[in-house]
Design a protein that fits this description.
Shape: flat
Number of helices: 6
Number of strands: 15
Low-confidence stretches: 302-306, 312-316
Strand order of the largest sheet: 1-4-5-6-7
Helix content: 25-40%
Largest sheet: 5 strands, antiparallel
Strand content: 15-25%
Radius of gyration: 27 Å
Length: 337
């Protein structure tokens, strides 16, 4: 007597195989895609480093005033098939991408300069690039870039900020998948909040400027006088891009009312108020018992230099003669976009 599977048994077996396949194949495909993206990213960054090292050795890495000029030189060391102007970035890159853990929608047409990468304003425009290996990129060049042709280990990678898409115009256009970054701190609009319709960035601690640097740049930045060799206030002014990009005293008073959860702008001292920890977290300020300050665009009054500040102990919005420009505890909110 011949033995065989019944139709019911065959159908049950096929159903089980189908269920197992439905559960495992997507994971297998996902893992394969992630390995493919990671491998492609490593390969691309290795080739880019080699190109930058070659430029460094030939002393063609530094000295450019525009990103476009730098890219033209870069194209001699790594094959580039297309270069897109600042006003036509989407000709080289997908316009809508997804960034961050919450997959925020970012529009590439608004990624115009280094500040949109979370860097200081390098004074250059972003340029779109398509590489011959299918990678698309948005690149910013830092004119402060240096070169060291006698150092074979110097790659010059800090000279640029680069957003690149391993899969070109193909989806998913998502960070940590086909989207990767070099020297990008944040992406998109740098507007954290608005006061009276003015956009402000997250708080920053600028690097101190020396007296000589301050003297050289004070006219451009709108600084009237330079006083010390570790000038943190002037450093904050430089980071923001000038006095007119700093928060005013009036705007600080309104911000203080949000931090202390009151209805009216705060002026003068009032130690009966308590900082709102949730507000501190939202505005990116420290929640601790140490003193910190917020610089504003107020610089001086006659012969004495004053600074408008917000103290973490109680409220002090106004002039504080005890706070000097060499104090490294100050934060700055810059006008954003």
């Amino acid at each position: 007597m011949k033995k065989a599977f019944t139709l019911a048994e065959v159908l049950i077996t096929l159903t089980i195989i189908g269920i197992v396949a439905a559960l495992t194949i997507p994971t297998i495909v996902k893992n394969y895609q992630e390995r493919t993206w990671t491998t492609a990213s490593i390969t691309f960054e290795r080739k880019l480093e080699e190109a930058l090292k070659s430029m460094n050795a030939q002393e063609t890495l530094a000295g450019y005033t525009t990103t476009k000029d730098f890219v033209h030189e870069l194209s001699k060391h790594i094959k580039i098939t297309k270069i897109c102007e600042n006003n036509k970035l989407t000709s080289c890159f997908s316009n809508k991408i997804y960034w961050g853990s919450n997959k925020e929608e970012i529009y590439i047409s608004k990624i115009k300069n280094s500040k949109n990468f979370g860097q200081e304003d390098w004074g250059t425009e972003n340029i779109g690039i398509q590489f011959s290996n299918g990678v698309n990129g948005i690149l910013a060049y830092n004119p402060a870039c240096t070169q060291d042709p006698f150092n074979n280990q110097y790659t010059g990678i800090n000279c640029i900020a680069l957003l690149y898409d391993i899969s070109g115009f193909k989806t998913p256009n998502t960070q940590a998948k086909d989207l990767r970054a070099i020297n990008i701190i944040s992406l998109g609009s740098n507007c954290l909040f608005e006061l009276d319709g003015v956009c402000f960035t997250a708080p920053v601690k600028g690097k101190a400027m020396s007296y000589e640097e301050c003297e050289q740049q004070k006219t451009e930045l709108g600084i009237k006088e330079c006083y010390c060799d570790t000038d943190y206030w002037a450093g904050a002014v430089k980071f923001c891009g000038g006095i007119d990009k700093m928060m005013s005293v009036e705007q600080l008073a309104k911000l203080a009312s949000k931090l202390y959860h009151t209805d009216e702008p705060i002026t003068g001292n009032n130690y009966n108020l308590t900082l709102d920890k949730d507000a501190l977290s939202y505005y990116g300020l420290p929640d601790n018992r140490s003193s910190w300050y917020i610089w504003t665009n107020k610089e001086h009054d006659e012969d004495q230099v004053y600074y408008s500040v917000l103290l973490s102990h109680g409220v002090g919005v106004g002039n504080d003669t005890s706070l000097k420009r060499d104090n490294g505890s100050g934060y700055a909110f810059c006008v954003g976009y």
